[in-house]
Amino acid sequence: MSILKLLEAPESRTLEFKEKIPSALAIAKTICAFSNGAGGSIIIGIRDRDKTLIGIDEMEISDMKESCS
Asked: Hey, where are the domains in the chain?
C-alpha cells in the first residue's frame, strides 16, 4: 500500500502514526503486536490527530541509532 493510501486511513490494529521516534521499548512492543497479528505499518513524523506531516529531526535518528547499538 502506498504512503498516500496509508495517510488516508485511520489508525488501527495494523497502522500507527507517531509524531516522534518512540523509545526502543515502545517501538518493539508495537512491532511485536503487529507480528502477532496481520502485520502493520508504523509511520513516524505524522501528527496523530490531523495527520499533518511534521517530519523528524536528524538528531533524533542519530540518537535512536545510538540507543539501539
From this structure: 3-68
